[in-house]
Design a protein that fits this description.
Helices cover about 40% and strands about 15% of the residues. The chain is an alpha/beta fold. The protein folds into 2 domains: about 140 residues, Alpha-Beta Complex (Aspartate Aminotransferase, domain 1); about 210 residues, Type I PLP-dependent aspartate aminotransferase-like (Major domain) (Aspartate Aminotransferase, domain 2). Strands 2-8-7-6-5-3-4 form a 7-stranded mixed sheet, sandwiched between helices. A 3-stranded antiparallel sheet has the order 9-10-12, covered by helices on one side. Strands 1-11 form a two-stranded parallel ribbon. Helix 2 packs across helix 13 and helix 13 packs across helix 15. It is globular. The two termini are about 40 Å apart. The relative contact order is 0.17. Bound molecules: pyridoxal-5'-phosphate. The site of pyridoxal-5'-phosphate (PLP) has 11 residues, from helix 3.
């Protein structure tokens, strides 16, 4: 495999002097590519073979990615969507049909970060549950379904949409057993199920359940193409063939960057194929890094319960902002420390594999003074 295309690896052949594909970051979901790095990946994808472009997000490389993700998720079909925001919206809109109440987590992207698109543009009534939490309890779902069914004017719940992991809750995951209960009950009630799985490729490592196990609980599943898989933008919406068939008309209705989507997805395929392995290796390296830092005595690290891609780090004996600035100059990018607690919410991704954990620990420790 060409060096530039390696997801994590050591990027051993990358031009050291150029500094490209070298930085290690604890802030992004994927590699956090710079424009120059992305341009090189595009060059690589188009060199030496005829890359088949799409037309209005139909055909060519886009169809290839749709098939790949349908297969990875164990769904019959999938469709490219320019953004995850629109993927969630299209899913709940079509699943709801005439049953226009949609149960969502109060902390979900669909409820908080989508400008009420489903309410404003599709006339749906989103009902926020589990405020401040990731997992909706079965009793809450039951209460709303019964309340809606027994209303003075019939207004049925059509869809239950669940985000997993939950970004606003530090990427906490919904416990799989709970998910099975909630989805099983909703299904018995004839309610359709959507998964916002923007970052669901992190779930198997932490939950012990496969991508397909997670996807099987839902009628439709959205996965981001630009978070873990380093596309410029884009999303996949997967479901059964009947659901996806003809959905591109609805996609077109909402506009967006459709005319030539291939540059958005060109690097995605190979990163998706190896992501689970890269992520597991990234955590192995991170665990070693954490152990080395803790042995130093000036660092404390912890992992949140039901966490996925995050660990919390505190450092003593140095002002966190000064320390992170020094690390940045050494090519290691850390998040800002919380202004009061000084805690750094560290995001694990495959860039940690670009060097050894031992070398990284030495860099962290050397940056304590200078
Ligand atoms: C959980 C979740 N869902 C949906 C989205 C929306 O994706 P996009 O930015 O591609 O519209 C995001 C994006 O940040 C997200 O974190």
């Amino acid at each position: 495999m060409p060096v530039l295309a390696q997801a994590g690896g050591t990027d051993a052949g990358a031009d050291a002097a150029s500094g490209l594909f070298k930085s290690v970051n604890f802030v992004s979901d994927g590699l956090g590519l710079s424009p120059r790095e992305y341009a090189l990946l595009l060059d690589e994808a188009t060199k030496g073979r005829d890359l088949e472009p799409d037309y209005y997000s139909l055909g060519g490389l886009v169809t290839a990615r749709e098939r790949q993700f349908a297969q990875l998720l164990g769904k019959e079909a999938a469709m490219f969507v320019p953004t995850g925001t629109l993927a969630n919206h299209l899913a709940v809109r079509k699943l709801a049909g005439n049953d226009r109440r949609v149960l969502v987590q109060a902390e979900s992207h669909l409820y908080n970060d989508s400008g009420d698109c489903a309410e404003t543009l599709s006339g749906l009534n989103l009902i926020p549950l589990a405020q401040g939490r990731s997992t909706i309890e079965l009793a809450e779902v039951r209460r709303w379904i019964e309340r809606s069914a027994g209303g003075r004017v019939e207004t049925k719940v059509g869809v239950l949409s669940i985000e997993n992991p939950v970004r606003r809750n530090g990427h906490e995951m919904v416990e799989f057993g709970e998910l099975e209960h909630i989805c099983g009950y909703a299904r018995e009630q004839g309610i359709r199920l959507h998964l916002d799985g923007a970052r669901m490729f992190n779930l198997p490592f932490h939950s012990g359940r496969s991508l397909r196990d997670h996807a099987a609980l839902f009628d439709t599943v959205y996965v981001s193409l630009w978070k873990h898989f380093n596309g410029a933008s884009g999303a996949i919406l997967a479901g059964n063939a009947g659901f996806i068939d003809g959905l591109f008309h609805l996609r077109r209705m909402f506009g967006g960057a459709l005319p030539q989507a291939w540059p958005q997805v060109a690097p995605v395929g190979r990163y998706a194929e190896r992501y689970e392995e890269d992520y597991a290796n990234a955590w192995q390296a991170t665990d070693r890094l954490i152990a080395l830092l803790q042995a130093d005595g000036r660092f404390e690290a912890s992992k949140p319960p039901n966490g996925t891609s995050r660990f919390l780090l505190t450092v003593s004996g140095v002002a966190p902002d000064e320390w992170t600035a020094r690390l940045r100059r050494r090519g290691v990018i850390l998040p800002y420390a919380h202004p009061e607690s000084g805690v750094l919410a560290m995001q694990v991704n495959p860039t940690v594999l670009r060097t050894s954990p031992d070398a990284l620990a030495r860099i962290f420790i050397a940056a304590m003074k200078d």
